[in-house]
Amino acid sequence: MAHFSYLSDAQQAELKKTAEAIVAPGKGILAADESTGTMGKRLSNIGVENTEENRRIYRQLLFTSDKSMENYISGVILFHETLFQKTDDGTNFVTLLQNRGIIPGIKVDKGVIDLMGTDGECTTQGLDDLGSRCAEYYKLGCRFAKWRCVLKIRDLTPSPLSILENANVLARYATECQKNGIVPIVEPEILPDGDHDLERCQKVTEKVLAAVYKALSDHHVYLEGITFLSGGQSEEEASIHLDALNKYPGKKPWALTFSYGRALQASALKAWAGKNEAIKAGQDEFLKRAKANSEASLGKYGGGVSGAAAAETLFIKDHAY
């Protein structure tokens, strides 16, 4: 008789509590897990040098925004470097977030690599030591994680091999996280690049999601909520589209909320521009977008929230971070 290894009731209860807190009504995730290289590009755009101290100052700006942040943001995805950074008064960023009732998360993938046997498609690396890293991240206070797989739409892609490989990688990642008490954010990102039409995008998305859900089921992964990426949309577009999803009257089996990086930060970054005297201005812009997306996650966003970069496209070709 076949025997499968399942999570205990206590493990499931802990994961469910974390997942439900992440997708609590009116709240979503701030994705602040940009790599050192990606942060360099963002800082370069505002004329700021890419140093560890400047990255710390910018993330401190976000994490120390006023108390209203706690009404909109349920969790923050951190980069490994950020786990060990502190505020000016010596408070560790993880402790700061925990004290504010915000759940710390961590990016655990190690980036994409070429998938042999395909036409320029990729898979994601980092599974080899994932279990031990998750155990360590749990000790450091992280309670959820993120792993990104990337699929591209072209004439003959994504290929069946790419879809199957990335679905199984995501499922294996998810099981390692859950064994260690960490809620996995499963991110099969289908890039918007290309000249394909909406119908093809829909068909590819359905095929990819079907494969991912099957892999999650095959690996006995425990699933509790859905968050959406901004995917290179402008800040305002990301809010409007999330709002439209939540206004749709059909049945939704999961909470539909946000996990936004650029769409929460673009105006804040531009308003701050690396100036100490503009930290409050940057925080105000961040909170403005956080509130807009909070309302959108409830289907109550009226639109029209302006910002320093609210209407600017955030699209990046072949986006990697």
TrEMBL record:
The keyword Phosphoprotein does not apply. Keywords: Glycolysis, Lyase. It holds the Pfam family Glycolytic. It is an enzyme of class 4 (lyase). It comes from the Eukaryota. Pathway: Carbohydrate degradation; glycolysis; D-glyceraldehyde 3-phosphate and glycerone phosphate from D-glucose: step 4/4. GO terms for molecular function: fructose-bisphosphate aldolase activity. It comes from Larinioides sclopetarius. Coiled coil: none annotated. InterPro entries: Aldolase_TIM (IPR013785), FBA_I (IPR000741). This is fructose-bisphosphate aldolase. Gene3D superfamilies: Aldolase class I. Its EC number is 4.1.2.13. CDD domains: FBP_aldolase_I_a. One of its GO terms (biological process) is glycolytic process. Belongs to the class I fructose-bisphosphate aldolase family.
